[in-house]
Every structure is written in C-alpha cells, then in structure tokens.
Amino acid sequence: MMKFLWVSIVVAFCFSKWVDGFLQYSHRGDPKTEIINNTLMVSITLIRGAEAKGAVCLDGTLPAYYFNRGLGSGANSWVVHFQGGGWCSNITECVARAKTQFGSSRYMLPETGFTGILSFKAEENPDFFNWNRVLIPSCDGASYSGDSENKEAQLHFRGKRIWLAFMEELMSLGMRHAKRALISGCSAGGLTSILHCDKFRSLFGKSTKVKCLSDAGFFPDEVDISGAPTFRKFFSGVVSLQGVKKNLPRFCTRHLDPTSCFFPQNLISGIKTPLFILNSAYDIYQFYAILVPASTDPNGLWDNCKSNITNCSPSQLQIMKGYRSQMLNLLKPISKSKQNGISITSCYAHCQAQYQVMWHADNSTLIGTKTISQSVGDWYFDRAEVKVYDEATFFSNWVDGFVQYSHEGDPKTEIINNTLMVSLTLIQGADAKGAACLDGTSSSPHENLLIKKKGGGWCGNITDCVARKKIQLGSSNLMLQETGFTGILSYKAEENPDFFNWNTVMLPSCDGASFSGDSEKGLQDEAQLQFRGHRIWLAAMEKLMSLGMRHAKKALISGCSAGGLTSILHCDKFRGLFRRSTKVKCLSDAGFFLDSVDITGEPTFRNFFSNVVSLQCFFPQNLLAGIKTPLFILNSAYDSFQFRFSLVPASADPNGLWNSCKLNVTNCSSSQLHILQGFRR
Predict the structure, then answer these.
(1) 283 is annotated as an active-site residue
(2) Does residue 187 have an active-site annotation?
(3) Coil, strand, or helix at residue 267?
(4) Rounded to an integer, what is the distance from CA 182 to the centroid of its chain?
(5) Which site from 9, 121, 187, 641 is most exposed, i.e. has the minimal number of CB atoms within 10 Å?
(6) Mean pLDDT of 448-461
(7) Which of 212, 275, 240, 51 is nearest to 142 (CA)?
C-alpha cells in the first residue's frame, strides 16, 4: 500500500512572524521607528541621568521606555501603558529577576511592536491611534512602588523613583501640554495604573481630561483551593522587601495593613480619578497563581483542567464559578459611580488591551455588541456609561451548561446553549475482559463513525496514578454525564462541513497511557490500580463494531494530546478492523510529542514517558515512518503543553525565569525566543 504522511505547516502563522521579526531586528541599531510585518516597531529609549536620582532597575541599569509621537488631532493626547511582568518577593527571586528584561534594561528588546491600544492604525485602534503612545516595561518588581535596597545582593528596589523619573521625562517630551491623558497597564502594570492613578491625575491641570485603565490588574485577596492565603503571603513579601508601605495610598494605610493596601479591592473605592477595570473573570494567571498554585496541587489533579477547560470536572467548574462570583462582588464599589467603567470578560486569558485580536479586530470577542476597544473608547470620551459583564461567551456558557446538566438523568442527546449534549455510555461487560479504568470502573464512550480520543495526559508513578484514579481521567464514576460535541464532533454543517452528519464518538481517557498499557503492577500493593488501557481499546472497538461500525464505508480516528498519541499508536490497528474498501485515515491533534531535552539539557519528558511505559505496559517521531495508514499531523510548533512540560518543566526553572514568557510570548526575551524557535525546528 502506498504510504501517505500529511503534515500541515503554516509558515506564515502570526506567532512565527512575531518571533522572526523580533529576532531579525533585535540586534540592529536604534532606529526611531520602522514597519515590520505590518506592525510599527518602536526603538528603546534610556532615561539618561536617572542614576543620579537613584532611579535605576533592580540591577542598577537605567530604566527605559518606548515612545511614538502623536500626530494631527492626537498631538496633545497621551497614552502611557505599563507592561506586565510580575513581581519578586524575596532576595532569591529578585536576584534571578535582575538577570532578565524584567529587572534590567540590559536585557530589554531594542525594538518592540506597538499593537492593540498602542497601534498606529485607525482600523485597529480607532480612538487612540494618533495619540502620543508610550510603553513602559517593568524593571523593578513592585509595580513601581518600592523604595529600598539590598547592598549585599546588589539589588535596587527603586520603583517609586523610576516612576517619578518617567513622569519627568514624559512631561519634558510634551506631556505637560496634554489635553487628554490615559494611563493604562497590563497585569503588574495594571496594578501600577491603580496604585498611581490619582498621582498621574495630579500632574495635569484641571482642564486636562485624565483617566486610568487597569487591564488584568485586579488581583483579589483570595485564598487558594486549600484555604491558604498563598498570594497574600507573596504580596506581603513584595511589600516588606521593597519598602512599598510608605508609597501606598494613605486613605488605605490609615485603616488597613500595607499588604492589604497592595490589593486593588481595598483601593478602588478611594480613587477619585475615573477608573476602568478590564479583567477576565477566568484570568489564566490568577488561575495558576492565586486559585490553584502548584503548592496546593502536588499530585497535579488540576493540570488538565488548567491546560484545557473541557477537562475540568464539575466540582472544578463550580470552584471556578465561585471565584468569578467573588470577583464580581469585589467590584461592586467601583460599579456604583458613573465615571468608572467595567468590562469583565470570560476569556481564558491574561491581558487583553495590548493584543490586537482581543482589542479590536474582525474576529475579536464582542462584549455585548462592542469590542474592548469600543467599550474603553466610549467610556473615555463619555459617549456611554460602560458596565459590561460577559455572560454569553463560550467559556461562560460551557461552564453554566455543564454544571447545570452534569447531574441530570441519562438522555441520549439534547441541545443546550446551541450545542449538542451527548450522554455517557458505559461499556457493559468490559470488566469481565479486564477492560477497566485505573480505579476498576467500566470504560465509557459518548456516542452519537468518527472517533475522537479525548486528551488528559498520563501518569508515570504510583502516586500520580492513585491521584488520577480519583478524577474523571481515571474513573468513569467521575466523568461528566453529558458532554458537548463541538469542533470536529459538531452536528452543524456550518461548523463541521465534512463530518457533521457522521456517526461521532468521544472516548474519554481513563487509563493514563494512551490506551496502550496492560500490567498488574498496580494491583500488587494497596494502590489497587488497573493498567488496562490496551484492553479498554479492544473493548471500545468491539462495542463500536457492534453498533454498526463494521459496515463503515469511511472511518477516521482522531485524538487530542494524549488522545492524539493514541491515534498514532493505534492507527494501523484501527485500519485493521475494516475491509480494504473502507476509507480509513488517522488524525493526531497536538499528539506529536518530541523526544527532546529541556533547557538544562535534561531528558525530563523522556524520563516521564519511560516511567509510563515501564509502569504500564512512545515517542511519535519513532513511529511515523512505520505507519501504513494515511496519517494527518495537526500540531502547534509552540504547543503550550510541550512548552511547560517538555521544554521548560518546573524542575528546569526553579527561580521562575520563564514564568512570564510561558504566560505571554510578548514577555519572552530574545534568548528565550531563540530557544523557542530551536524547539520549533
């Protein structure tokens, strides 16, 4: 049989363009501006003489900014945007930070792209495109509020002095004549906008229209899933280490401790200047750092939920909804004033104003009937009062639908939120064949023949597998009773033109080895683990053949992540089920896991896979050449799972130097981008 291997490589994808553009120009001279990949690239400017005022970054280098002068009607209007980058709360963290672009101008990009709220195009940034636009990178570690030092570690905690130096510099560039001014910021920069909002207002005369925008800067003072105040302890370290107390708003410190006054919920009611809060109720950074920090989830029970919300259990979804509700409650004080604005989205994202696709684009998510850009513009120019809470995005609907229906009876199908909901079916009699999930329960496909294997990772040791059997990825007792069929499983022709009317099957992961293990090791101790993935595969195929798949004229096996690896491992076995006349092909989505070392040179992911293989009896690159059935590889060259677990696992980055890069590629340094491109190749 002729062998076909279909590999889809999108060379012009936006991420690749962004990386190539920045690597190409990051070592050039210092031109004022240039257009690259249709994006305005703005060169870095150091604040000369700042060291004489003690206004220096963590490592003692000069602070820097990126500036593009306004034109025409925007010549006397200013947007000052503070970039994100997190904080550091102890000497070890700050020493590590001082060796990155978040603690030293030495490592900052010589040029950066102005997009979103900083774009120079009217069609991308209708209200602010021709304003004077300033981007200020983070280089202190305390949202430009500290004033201290540690001579032994040679650390300079001079955020407050840098703030003053920036303002003096911008006033000298013409901001003193501003008729309109907006301070904005993302993440730690969003907190900067809140902390310095009234101070920014005081720089101008009464006739100047001044407002403040905080994007992803509303960090709640909330406990994590274990009930511990992990994020409060972190903020407490930032405040005490960097001498933040004396620079916090006095209206707050008069009645609350300094750490409490670093949390926006205790500041917003005392701010006099109009303030706009732009935040996701399901902010990905807050999910990782506040709600489910690594310390609260040692067995990784939330890992799959963090990576993909369709893997979240009903109880996890309820916790996330509770977090959203608490955030909305904390925002009530600011919502009472007409001068303030609020836009709460349900995107699983962190920072939205600086990214074009979220700010203002043809495919931007609309909050109500408006893009984020339109909402912010309406608020700033007083065209409308803006208090919008996104109740209707896919994420919100998905959570509401699944929580509402996950405990109902077992109907065959029903339509909820315009999505086909398909009930769970257990493979009766599978236990007699030893085809059981990790905990011994029956395996269970969702039926409605296109077969999709759901992702869910693997487990490589007894501890991980014991933890896994207590969630839906190791037990059918904990699986959703109904699941939504979308994407390649959708029943709508307009959403799934080629496969909408096929027999569709979703097979959830419940074994921990891509349905390939067959071992009794787990039964020999108190763990009582069933490593029977291969038997489950056989039982599932037997069940589907009995449902009519034996008569199939066309069949496609597909899978995502660990399910994508299943599609590769079982591709030819699937082909072997059918006659020659049946058209059979295989699709692997995000299942091409590289046998590659991490950034320290260690084979971390290989060691993990080795444990899975030895415990439960795999790398695709060693399988492709031998597969005879037509195979399609769908993968991102910058796959977020492989980024976190293969290229930069936690063990390879104990000081968290890659954390900001992992969350947002625009935070990556030039050297980090080079490593990412090397992984892509």
Answers:
(1) yes
(2) yes
(3) coil
(4) 27
(5) 9
(6) 69
(7) 240
